[in-house]
C-alpha cells in the first residue's frame, strides 16, 4: 500500500497547476516589500525628474511659440537640426567641446586613479585620512568660489601667481584672457576640484583586493611597482572600464557654470561650447525649439559614445556596463 500511496501523491504533485506569472510577481512583491519601499523615493525621483521631462524632446521638432502653447505650435520635423548643422558656428562649437572632452579623458580621467593608487600606498592610517579629507574638500566648493580663487591668483592686476612669475621671469601671463590658456585652465580647475572626490570609487575597489596576493608577491621578491602593475591595476580594471564608459556619456557635457564664469570677450572663440550656446539661444534669445534641438543632438551623441565604448570594451574581453 505504501508504494501506491507514494505514487498517487507524486502524480498529484505533478498535475498541480503552475503558479501564474502575476502570482509569482505578487509573491516577490510581498517578500521584498520593505526593500521596494526603501527604493520608492529613488524611483519617484527618476520618474518625475528624468523620464517625464523626456516629453519635452518633442519641442526640438516644433516651431514653439509661447502664445500658441506646446500642442498648437507648428510641427517642423528635423528643420531645427538641419539649421543647426548648417550654421557656421556648429564646427566651432564641435571643435571647442570635443577638445575639452578630449582633455578631460586624457588628463582628468587618470588623475583620480593615480591619486587613489598613491593614497593606497600610505600605511599610516591617521595621515591617510587627513590627506583624503584634504583632497575631498574642493569638491564641496561652488564653481563661483573656484572661479574667484582662479581670478585672485591669475589676474595680471595683483594675482599671486602672476606677481611671482613677474619677479622670476620679468613678464606677466594673460591666463584669464588668452585663448591659448583657456583649455589648460579649465582642465586644471576640474582636476583640482574633482580629483579627490573621484578617488572614492577607486579606493573602495582597492579595498577589495586580496591581500594574500601581495604577500605571495613579496615572497617571490616582487617590487612595489611590480605589485602595482600585476596585482593592483588588474584588480580594479573592471571599475576603471565602467567609469570610463560612464565618462564618455558626458564627453560633450562640459559644465555650463564653469565655462560661463571663465569665458569673456577675449577668449570667446575657444570658450563657446554646446552648453553655453544652448543658454545663449534658448534663454537670452528665446529660440526654445532650436536650443532643444541642440541639446538633443548633444544627448544623442552621448548615448552613441556610451554604446560604442561599451561595445569596444566587451570586444576587448571586459565585462562592460551592460
UniProtKB/TrEMBL annotation:
Compartments, as annotated in UniProt: Cell membrane; Membrane
Alphabetical UniProt keywords: Membrane, Transmembrane, Transmembrane helix, Transport
Family affiliation: Belongs to the binding-protein-dependent transport system permease family.
CDD domains linked to this entry: TM_PBP2
InterPro entries to which the protein is assigned, alphabetical: MetI-like (IPR000515), MetI-like_sf (IPR035906)
Domain ABC transmembrane type-1, chain residue ranges per copy: 94-309
Membrane topology term: Multi-pass membrane protein
Name under which the protein is recorded: ABC transporter permease subunit
The organism's place on the tree of life at top rank: Bacteria
Amino acid at each position: 500500500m505504501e508504494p501506491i500511496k507514494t505514487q498517487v501523491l507524486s502524480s498529484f504533485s505533478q498535475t498541480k497547476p503552475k503558479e501564474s506569472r502575476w502570482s509569482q510577481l505578487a509573491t516577490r512583491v510581498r517578500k521584498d516589500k520593505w526593500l521596494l519601499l526603501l527604493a520608492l523615493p529613488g524611483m519617484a525621483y527618476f520618474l518625475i525628474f528624468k523620464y517625464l521631462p523626456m516629453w519635452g524632446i518633442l519641442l526640438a521638432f516644433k516651431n514653439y511659440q509661447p502664445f500658441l502653447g506646446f500642442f498648437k505650435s507648428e510641427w517642423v520635423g528635423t528643420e531645427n537640426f538641419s539649421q543647426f548643422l548648417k550654421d557656421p558656428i556648429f564646427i566651432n562649437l564641435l571643435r571647442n567641446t570635443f577638445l575639452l572632452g578630449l582633455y578631460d579623458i586624457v588628463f582628468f580621467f587618470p588623475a583620480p586613479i593615480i591619486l587613489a593608487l598613491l593614497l593606497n600606498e600610505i600605511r599610516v592610517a591617521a595621515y591617510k585620512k587627513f590627506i583624503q579629507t584634504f583632497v575631498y574638500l574642493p569638491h564641496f566648493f561652488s564653481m563661483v568660489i573656484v572661479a574667484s580663487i582662479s581670478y585672485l591668483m591669475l589676474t595680471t592686476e595683483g594675482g599671486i601667481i602672476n606677481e611671482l612669475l613677474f619677479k622670476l621671469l620679468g613678464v606677466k601671463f594673460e591666463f584669464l584672457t588668452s585663448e591659448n590658456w583657456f583649455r589648460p585652465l579649465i582642465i586644471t580647475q576640474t582636476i583640482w576640484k574633482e580629483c579627490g572626490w573621484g578617488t572614492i570609487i577607486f579606493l573602495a575597489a582597492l579595498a577589495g583586493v586580496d591581500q594574500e596576493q601581495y604577500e605571495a608577491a613579496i615572497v617571490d621578491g616582487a617590487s612595489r611597482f611590480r605589485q602595482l602593475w600585476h596585482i593592483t591595476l588588474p584588480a580594479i580594471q573592471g571599475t576603471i572600464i565602467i567609469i570610463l564608459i560612464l565618462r564618455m556619456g558626458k564627453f560633450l557635457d562640459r559644465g555650463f557654470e564653469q565655462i560661463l564664469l571663465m569665458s569673456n570677450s577675449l577668449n570667446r572663440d575657444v570658450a563657446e561650447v554646446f552648453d553655453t550656446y544652448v543658454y545663449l539661444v534658448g534663454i537670452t534669445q528665446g529660440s526654445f525649439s532650436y536650443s532643444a534641438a541642440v541639446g538633443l543632438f548633444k544627448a544623442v551623441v552621448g548615448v552613441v559614445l556610451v554604446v560604442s565604448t561599451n561595445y569596444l570594451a566587451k570586444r576587448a574581453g571586459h565585462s562592460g556596463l551592460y
